[in-house]
Structure formats: structure tokens, C-alpha cells
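PROTEIN DESIGN WORKSHEET
SECTION A - STRUCTURE
LENGTH: 121
C-ALPHA CELLS:
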């Protein structure tokens, strides 16, 4: 057996993280996930400030939104501050786009009911 095959077999024998959860905790996680919504989403357009990025993600997670769409800024990385997000971003599905057009093309047409923006320039 190859070294890679042995590693794969060894990994398959390891317990899953869910094996360590109490049944009550597992049920609570499943209940919370079921309550999250995909009928409302947020599209972020070319954000620059890492604290604003993080604050928006935390708010979306707290409101139960599942999907966040981010149009990337050409000069600034989308890198929300870990101090602000407190790990909430791991529960969100964050979709990244290089242009507004690619974001609009990927969103379901029925979602494009309201669009607001704020520009400083």
C-alpha cells in the first residue's frame, strides 16, 4: 500500500468532530441552522475598512442571514477584522465577485427587488 493510501485509511478511522457533541448540542445546532434564511441577502460593494466588513458580517449572522455577496475592491483585500467578527464568518456563506456585473448575474432575478448604495466619491 502506498504512503498516500495509508494516510487516507488512517484519516478515515479518525472520529468526526460531531462524534464529540452531546445530542442536545447537535440538535440545537441543527435547529439554529434550519432557522437561517436564504430569502434575504446582502451585497457588499468594494468595501475598504476591515472593521466595517466585520461589523456587517456580524450583523448579518445575528439576523440569521446565510448568504453574503461581496464585490471585491480592486485595491483592498476583503479581510474582515477577526477581533470584530469573533468567528461568526465561519457560519456564513460568503460569495466573492470581481465585478458588480458578475454579482448581478449570479443572484436570482427575484432577489433584485431593492438595491441601495452609499458612495462618498
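SECTION B - SEQUENCE
RESIDUE ASSIGNMENT:
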Amino acid at each position: 500500500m502506498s504512503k498516500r493510501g495509508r494516510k487516507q485509511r488512517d484519516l478515515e478511522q479518525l472520529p468526526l468532530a460531531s462524534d464529540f457533541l452531546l445530542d442536545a448540542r447537535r440538535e440545537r445546532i441543527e435547529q439554529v441552522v434550519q432557522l437561517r434564511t436564504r430569502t434575504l441577502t446582502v451585497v457588499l460593494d468594494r468595501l475598504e475598512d476591515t472593521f466595517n466588513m466585520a461589523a456587517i458580517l456580524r450583523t448579518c449572522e445575528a439576523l440569521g442571514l446565510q448568504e453574503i455577496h461581496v464585490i471585491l475592491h480592486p485595491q483592498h483585500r476583503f479581510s474582515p477584522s477577526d477581533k470584530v467578527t469573533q468567528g461568526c464568518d465561519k457560519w456564513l456563506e460568503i460569495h466573492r465577485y470581481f465585478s458588480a456585473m458578475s454579482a448581478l448575474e449570479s443572484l436570482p432575478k427575484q432577489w433584485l427587488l431593492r438595491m441601495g448604495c452609499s458612495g462618498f466619491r
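SECTION C - NOTES
The mean pLDDT is 81.
Residues 50-63 form the longest helix (14 residues).
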